[in-house]
Amino acid sequence: MGLRGPGANPLRARHEAIEAAASCPYPWDAPGLSRAGRVISFLEDLEITTGKHARTKLRLRAWQRKFIETVYRENKRGIRPIRTAVLSMARKNGKSQLAAALALCHLCGPEAESRGEIYSCANDRFQSARIFNEMVALIDRHPALSVRTNITSFRKEIHDLVNGSIYVALTAEAKTKLGLSPSFVIYDELGSADGRALFDAMDSALGARENPLMLVISTQAADDFAPMSQLIDYGLQLKGGDIRDPAFHLTLYSAPENSDPWSKKAWRAANPALGDFRSLSDVERLAKQAQLMPARENAFRNLILNQRVAAEARFIDAAAWRACSAEPDICVGARVYAGLDLGATRDLSVLVVVYEDSAGVFHVKPYCWLPGNLQERSEQDHAPYSAWAKLGFITPIGPTTDPRAIAQKIAELNGQNRIISIAFDRWRINDLKRELDAIGCPVPLEPHGQGYKDMSPAVDIVERLVVQKKLRHGAHPVLQWCAANAVVTRDPAGGRKFDKAKSSGRIDALVALAMALSLALLRAEKPIDIEALIG
């Protein structure tokens, strides 16, 4: 395999073997093959290294061929238009083997270029070793590739001694990825990434090459704001005709949200290799476990059905929340209520204004403030704060929380509408009261407890309004992110409250919304049929 050390071939013999490997005819050099045909020919010259088909030639399935033919299609100028390709499907459908084979194709196959740089990206060292080890196994079973490559196991590097290209396995733990000039990048399981630093570093580095390619192969992420989810949503917009981008391609195998999760039809939708090299009996076993143990259902939906579902139970169903995404319409002069979650010195602060129209639908407008360095905060909280700030969904307010800026916004809103009252958490409220008094803004403030007694009715109200589609939140990304993160806990009497410690991220905006709706419905001036709402 090109290993250096005791037992290595003499240098002259090594050079002769390399020259012979460089000049020998390969199957993918046959005349008349398209670019995609050459890639397929290279892949099918490799041997399967594990499983029941081990030591037999790789034979691409129709769905794999279709993906490769799409990604490696050339335009009239002989250029491959696609620069970013996303392949998403359930676990155990041969993603890692396909990724390793394509990495080899770009290292020393028909897609290789002089002094190319090929990188596989993973979330940790164990995961990064999987593609590297698979590549080494493929090389070991292919005499021509074994001669022309040199493997450095402890650095997880492979050098092609004919064209000078190098493959390196990278992880999100690496201290720096700057200065790279990738010709081909594979990101394995981006859906499990804690952040987007590695993805962004590699994506931005692609511009140094004439015709680079980034391939993302992953099961879906659990929430809408993960990098993998954003790529899939972008691809779905392309497929829907909403936008046009010939440099991007998405192939998505996923069971529809409204499908029966226990049906083979749903399993096949997310597992193109089901019954082939994806064991049907294993999926049946996992489905039975998920049916008997409801706590496992979400994990089954995410990993086996490739649905965007968190492995742990969340408070609000994502599909139900998206169904309330109509734009809010709060006319000037409307009577409104608000909820305020005032953050600590360096935390997110959120004011949510709600207005009930004549049909009983609540229109929701959040206002968010975040202190500190937004880029650093984005990495800490795994949220695109900088992007949200540019779009106006978050207002940066310097190094620490600034009650004066929040008081000024409240005064501005009270000038446009009549704020009946603002429900607040008692944290640091005296600072805000002082600022409101200083600018002469007499908005009534009403404390709202955060324990089970006060929050349980508020939690019930949010849940019921979402299910009944009586919210219009405009898909505000900060509120949507907080709703996706929220987890509730119960007391012995069955009361519920939001649990910030158990939630997967910040939930401040959802807490503010719950307090505002609680104030509007439970403490409003008009009589309300509470039993009909939360009963």
Quick structural summary:
With 535 residues, the protein is an alpha/beta fold.
Helix coverage percent: 25-40%
> How many structural domains are formed by the residues?
3
CATH class category name of the largest domain: Alpha Beta
Mean pLDDT, all residues = 87
Label the overall shape. elongated
Which fold name is given in CATH as the topology of the largest domain?
A: Rossmann fold
Q: Give, in spatial order, the strands making up the sheet with the most strands.
A: 3-4-5-2-6-7-1-8
Radius of gyration: 28 Å
CATH architecture of the largest domain: 3-Layer(aba) Sandwich
Largest sheet: 8 strands, mixed
How many strand elements?
17
Low-confidence stretches: 5-9, 525-535
Structural class: alpha/beta
Number of helices: 20
Question: Roughly what fraction of the amino acids lie in strands?
Answer: 15-25%
CATH superfamily of the largest domain: P-loop containing nucleotide triphosphate hydrolases
Q: What is the rounded distance between the termini?
A: 70 Å
Keywords:
20 helices; Rossmann fold; alpha/beta; 535 residues
Question: Could you characterize what this model shows?
Answer:
The chain is of the alpha/beta class and 535 residues long. The chain has 3 domains: 11-252, Rossmann fold (3-Layer(aba) Sandwich), CATH 3.40.50; 264-313, no CATH class; 320-534, Nucleotidyltransferase, domain 5, CATH 3.30.420. 38% of the residues lie in helices and 16% in strands. It has 20 helices and 17 strands. The strands form 3 sheets. An 8-stranded mixed sheet has the order 3-4-5-2-6-7-1-8, with helices on both faces. Strands 9, 10, 11, 12, 13, 14 and 15 form a 7-stranded mixed sheet that branches. The longest helix is centred in the first third of the chain and has 16 residues, at 125-140. It is elongated, with a radius of gyration of 28 Å. Mean pLDDT is 87; it is low at 5-9 and 525-535.
